[in-house]
Amino acid sequence: MGAVVSSTNGSDDGGIVADLTHPLKGDWLSQHAVACNVSKHEIALMWEQYKQLGCNEDGELSGDALMKACKANTTATKIVEMMPRSKDSVLTFQTFCNMSRWLADASIETKVRAAFQCLNKGHPLDIIVVMEILSEIYCDESQEVIERSAKVFMHQVGDMATHSINEQQFVKWARQLPNDTLQTIMDFKCSPNESQEQASSSNPVKKDSKEAPSTKHMLKVSRMASRKDWVLLANKLGFTQDDISLVKEELPGDEKEQVQQILSLWKQRGDDQATLSVLKEALRGSGMAEIADNLDTNA
């Protein structure tokens, strides 16, 4: 990710650890844990993530495998292109771990700057790039809506003289976002279960951990979340974009009903796993902490 991310490991020369061991050897994970300064548990979880991306039996992730993992996601492809790789276009497990650790530990502003570097290879963002990004975030919207939104964003954030957004302008815009929202967007755990483990080790089990959300809870969430970006909440509850599109088609134009349907489906799918605490966690994870807190009141 440009100069920012290259600090994680510089250019990837093929991986020092990979020259000393092999995935079939018993010390593969322990050697990487030491080299990357992470726990054995973390390295095991990262190894599972790395394998899911399509690494080969030698523990190497080729450029082709990376691009395949990105599929048609333009933004993800841009991020991959900025990753430090070997001369053979291989992303080693060691580099993958270093990047994961860096993303977990870096400051919010540093990660915002890294995000900017990825979006257009460090170059200022023009309206075409902004439209590409918005099209992937709001894939159900028409091209007309995307273009109009991009123009508004460019006008509010960018330089009208150059019709572009530079890094400083991008960072300034990000700083103006609500802190909870920015923290949620830029939060990256070294391993997928890290946040859950930290929470369970430091916090006692709350009374509502097994409590199912009541009808009153569901109605309150549907009413309040429908005024916000509830698609992110749906994602946090495990719904894909196709699931969300189907709900929108069934209930066109009525966002409150759409959210209510998502919550109803979530309860049906989750059965006893669809608890109030899970719903609150999803709300907080999608930038709706105030709604989660509101569920504790009688309002």
Automatic annotation (TrEMBL):
| Gene3D superfamilies, A to Z | Death Domain, Fas, EF-hand
SMART domains in the cross-refs: DEATH (SM00005)
The record places domain Death at 229-299
GO biological process entries: signal transduction
Please note every region of biased composition (Polar residues): 192-204
Q: Where is this region: Disordered?
A: 192-217
Enumerate the transmembrane spans: none
InterPro entries in the cross-refs: DEATH-like_dom_sf, Death_dom, EF-hand-dom_pair, FADD
Bias (Basic and acidic residues) occurs at: 205-214
What is the official name of this protein in its record?
Death domain-containing protein
The organism named in the record is Patiria miniata (Bat star)
